[in-house]
Amino acid sequence: MPGDTKLETADELWDLYNDLERLKGYKYTQPIVSDSGINNEKFHMELPYEEIKQIVEDCRDKFMSAVPKDEKTSLRWEHVGSTSIKGMPGAMMPDALLIVPQFPPSKGVIQAFLDSGYYFSSSSGLDPKDLWWFLVFTDGLLKDHKLTVHVVTEDNRAANMLLDTRDMCRAEEWAFNDYKEAKVAAAKSATFPEYKKGKGANSKLLAMLREKYKFNQ
Predict the structure, then answer these.
(1) Are 41 and 62 in contact (CB under 8 A)?
(2) What is the distance between the alpha carbons of residues 179 and 205, in angstroms, rounded to a whole number?
(3) At what angle do helices 49-66 and 107-115 cross, to 10 degrees?
(4) DSSP string, 100-157
(5) pTM metric for this prediction
(6) Strand pairing partners for 99?
(7) Residue 184 three-state SS
(8) Is 212 within 8 Å of 111 (Cβ atoms)?
(9) What is the helix (H) or strand (E) element at residue 197, kind and residue range?
(10) Which of 122, 141, 163, 203 would staple 182 via disulfide (CB 3.0–4.6 Å)?
């Protein structure tokens, strides 16, 4: 089934974000067709952590430079996901959070995404107030891969689960090993969606965090 029409102005997106029922059903897709034969769903046992970390920081700086000056201090950018954990295997598709003071994000923030080359795809199936913006890389190490930025408020459960997963894997050996083993086992699945589902289903760490943030209720 074809997706929805791409929304390309801050006003259109602002109106969408202020209509939660419409937002829940909205989904724009923009598949990446590589002209170089790059498989962006490939599972890597060794990710280039420092290089990806620098790319995500560069994306942060470029985005923040486009944000209105009076809004910059109210925003917080966090690199999350497997590429934010040194030594963690996974796909070379980085994730970040943009934590905003309130929902919906301001028109200034929305315009900064548009001016920085991002497009809005959809909200999370778990929470319509978790907004998914994508940036497609057209050259360099991450050519034909994309950065996902989750735009959330600081009380968003999914965002806090991502932060806890990162911080516990960085600080606690059992958490790192548990998540790594779950990901490696899931990577043996036939498809990328099965991998995404499987890595969460078999991790004690993620099960504990789902309970903490009441995702099982």
Answers:
(1) no
(2) 7
(3) 120
(4) ESSSSPPHHHHHHHHHTT-EEEEE-SS-TTSEEEEEE--SSTTTT-EEEEEEEETT-H
(5) 0.93
(6) 76, 152
(7) helix
(8) no
(9) helix 192-201
(10) 203
Nearest to 93 by CA among 53, 133, 169, 40: 40
Q: What sign does the CA torsion over 189, 194, 196, 197 have? A: negative
* Residue in 148, 36, 134 with CA at minimum distance from that of residue 83: 148
Q: For residues 71 and 108, is the Cβ–Cβ distance under 8 A?
A: yes
Closest CA to 27 of 141, 172, 128: 128
For 80-127, the pLDDT digits (tens) are 999 999 999 999 999 999 999 999 999 999 999 999 999 999 999 889
- Give the tens place of pLDDT for each residue, 134-189: 999 999 999 989 999 999 999 999 999 999 999 999 999 999 999 999 999 888 87
User: CA nearest 171: which of 49, 77, 85, 80?
Assistant: 85
| Contact between residue 101 and residue 151 where contact means Cβ atoms under 8 Å apart | no
CA distance 99 to 74: 9
What residues pair up with 108 in beta bridges, in sequence order? none
CA separation (Å) from 148 to 80, 94, 102, 202?
10, 7, 20, 24
Please answer whether residues 178 and 186 qualify as being in contact, where contact means their C-beta atoms are separated by less than 8 angstroms: no
CA distance 214 to 158: 10
Tell me which residue has tokens 């994508």.
134
